[in-house]
Amino acid sequence: MGAWLVWLILAIGLGIAEALTLTFVLGLLAVAALVAALLGAIGMPVAVQIIGFTASAAAGIYLVRPIMQRQMRGGSETKSGAEALVGRSAVVMQEVDGDGGRIKLSGEEWSARCIDEDLVIPVGTRVDVMEIDGATAVVYPREALP
């Protein structure tokens, strides 16, 4: 039995264990074992296979795993609701000043006020949403007003 077959059996075992535990580590080790199996299948010596396994496992655990964990957590970087509207662009529907006005934001009409209380933003101007204050979007013009 060739060394590549041992690596392949190890990869399958680690893959099954990963499916049962969802730790990401075992899956990355399974991929590293597949790399070693590939090296063995093309005729590389066992020492090269071990180096390939070690390098692949280290790269997976130190480079790929943190990205996978961040994607799975998602909560701290995923915005939803009103928070997701901050930074979006909108169009002024009714003149906006420091006291109020109306904008069209994500297909809906919102009450709005300008973050700069002395500024009056005319109808049709593109604005950026700086924050959401209750049910009011706090905006600022995207480009300088004439």
TrEMBL record:
GO terms for biological process: proteolysis. One of its GO terms (cellular component) is plasma membrane. Residues 82-141 form the NfeD-like C-terminal domain. Pfam families: NfeD. GO terms for molecular function: peptidase activity. The keyword Glycoprotein does not apply. It is a multi-pass membrane protein. The keyword Ligase does not apply. Signal peptide: none annotated. Keywords: Hydrolase, Membrane, Protease, Transmembrane, Transmembrane helix. It is found in: Membrane. The chain crosses the membrane at residues 29-62. InterPro entries: Membrane_assoc_protease (IPR052165), NA-bd_OB-fold (IPR012340), NfeD-like_C (IPR002810). This is Membrane protein implicated in regulation of membrane protease activity.
